[in-house]
Amino acid sequence: MPATVNRTTLKGYFDPGDEPTSVQFQTLIDSLASTNEANFLTGSQHMADALHVTGSIRTSGGINSVPVILTPAASVTLTAAQAGKLLLIPSTATSDDEYVLPTPTFLGQTYNIAWSGIAADADDVLFVASSADAITFTGGVLQFDTDATDASGYTIAFPGADDDKLTIVNPESFDLTFTATTLTNYHVRGYAMSTDTAVAFGDL
C-alpha cells in the first residue's frame, strides 16, 4: 500500500518558509485519489451526488440506505431519486391507492416497496404505469391467501404480456422489488399476503 497521510499532515508540508522534500511530494501524490488506478480509502467517504460504477463493488462491511416512509394518497408518483431505497407504505388513504412507477431512465433502476402497516387493510394498493403501456411487467409474485386452509392458499401470480397494473387486494403484508430490465419493463419479484387472492395483474 502506498504511503498516505491525512490532510492536516499534508498541509504541514507547505507552511510558509517550508521546502517540501521529494518524499513529501511523493506522499502528497500517494494520498490523493487517482482516476485511473486502484485507490485505498480508509476514511469515511461522503458523496452528495450519484456514483456510477462500471465494475463490481466488494465490501467487508454493509451498504446502508435510509428507508423512505411514503405518504399514502389516492395517487403517489415515485421518482428516480427514490430508486435503490426501501420504500415503506404504512397504510391506505382511499379504497384504491395508486403508486405510479416512473418509466425507467436506466437499466437496473430498482424500487423495493414493502407494507409497514401493523394490521390487515380492507383497501387495495396498486402499482401502475404512468400511462397505458408506458411500462410492462415480467417476473411473478408469490401470493398467500391467509383464509385458505389448503394448497390454494399459496400460488404464484404471473403478469400477462402487456400488463401495466399490479393490484394488492386487502394487504396484510407484502415486500416487492421492481427492477428495470429494459426502459419499458420492470421485473417484479417478492410476496404478498392477504385475506383474499392477494395479487392481480391487469391493464390500465
Q: Residue share in helices? A: under 10%
Task: Please work out how many helical segments DSSP would assign.
Answer: 2
What is the makeup of the main sheet? 8 strands, mixed
- Coarse morphology: elongated
Keyphrases for this structure?
single chain, 204 residues, mainly beta, 2 domains, 8-stranded mixed β-sheet, 5-stranded mixed β-sheet, 2 helices, 34% strand
Sequence-ordered SSE layout with sheet pairings:
Layout: H1 7-12, H2 22-31, E1 68-69, E2 75-77, E3 86-89, E4 96-101, E5 110-115, E6 124-129, E7 136-139, E8 141-145, E9 154-157, E10 165-168, E11 171-182, E12 185-194, E13 199-202
Parallel strand pairs: 1-3, 2-4, 3-5, 4-6, 7-12, 8-12
Antiparallel strand pairs: 5-11, 6-10, 8-9, 10-13, 11-12
